Amino acid sequence: MTPENSPKTISRRKMMLGVGGVAATGLGAWWSGRSFFSSDVASAEAAVSLRPLMIPPLIEGKNFHLNLNATSRQFFNGSKTPTYGYNGQTFWGPTLRWKKGDVVKLNVTNHLSETTTAHWHGIHLPSTADGGPHQPIAPGATWSPSFKVMNDAATYWYHPHMHQSTQKQLTMGAGGFIIIDDESAASKKLPRNYGIDDIPLVFSSRRFKTNNAFNLSKDIAYGDYLLANGVINATHTVPAQLIRFRILNAEVERYYNIGFDNNRPFYVVATDGGLLNKPARVTRLRMAPGERYEIVVDLSHESVGSSLEMKAYNQGMPFGAGGSEPAMSGPFGSLLNNTTFTMLNLTVSAPTAGAITSVPATLAANVLWKNSDATRRRVVKITDNGPGTPFTFDGKAYSMMAINQRVLLNTVEAWTIKNDHVFGHSFHIHDVQFALVSRSTGPIPEYEKGWKDTFAILPDEVVTFVAKFADYTNSTHPYMYHCHMSNHEDGGLMGQFLVVKN
Ligand code: C2O
Ligand code: CU
Question: For residue 21, is it left (φ>0), alpha (ψ between -120 and 50) or beta?
Fold first, then answer.
């Protein structure tokens, strides 16, 4: 019997579907943070056996070693699942903690039998250190880039970026968090005890084959089982105080509409590239693949021993949001599609010494780029060549030899991304952190008003961002921009740009 159709899985879905109201429809209701699904499925979910959340080990300093290995992990009874992990992990890798201003050196050794790369997602660095498709690491080889940490304190990540193998290597489990600290952020009263009140969470889903291996077919956009830090049905104990979660959506295509049971409000404190100027209070948070948000939840009034759940309120997402498709199987179906499902179970314990119990009123003094700051404008269209053909930018499939855009050093540019298509995407650009300045579907929500490197773009939506391309030029080595849905990226929805002196 396959895990896909085991009784356990079917009953889990029934439990999820058997409760709750009918979703209000419409984009506005979905992403403005309003609730449309208020029932509590905690009692039904309690029947599912919970497993402890894995907290990735932390490495700090200036000189880092990452060793990528093929390994395996026990997800189900019977055969282990072949996986990839760094530094002895059976899934994912250690969290690298960097200090802004330090010069770091990364030594990445590839112990796989296939070529990989190590990309530092969100990091402002020279293109030759970026770890994109142009910096392959052959089996047995070590790659050792070094650069100055210039980004603000926030949550970033590393992952393979080998052209046409990104989806597979990510699905196998290769990736890890990068946490950058800086003095300004350190002066803010935010939780920062790693694993205690400051918890990294990488979410993704997997489909399993009958032999318990991950289904690695390129045609599979969604998994049936949610993994929280590589754990199915994960639970974690958190003290009764302010808790920070650093959340990464590492799905192939699925968006998450994140919230807590009982519509508990929470605060977004950081976007992809830094703290927000002030916390944004929400009850729902949309996240597309590749995006990171840091949130804080106030548990200081919870009783010890009580529990709560972080959920993806994905039932009723507009069509085009990854995972909104109704199908339960097949390439664009999954048991989690268009349903509300638990992402993480939490149990409350006694507060720690020095607990933080209130949300700071202000966090940063970012001066984000405005539309009027831009002196150069570009339009990039998401296209394809007819039904069933891969997505492309401006009608051209990705080529490692093509330079699609040339940017002049120190220019503030406005890039307008037009999605003329029937499906949503997740747009990401390397080298810079940008400000979103307009969305054709409505105002930019407060929680997106910070430095970003990745954003959701729905069908027919037009989104403009503004960025300054500073510090690094190279007349031959490009950076990438692409859809962070890794199957789209591998399929050609990627372009290259140079930052040049003249
Ligand atoms: Cu997360 Cu081009 O990368
Ligand atoms: Cu896409």
Answer: beta
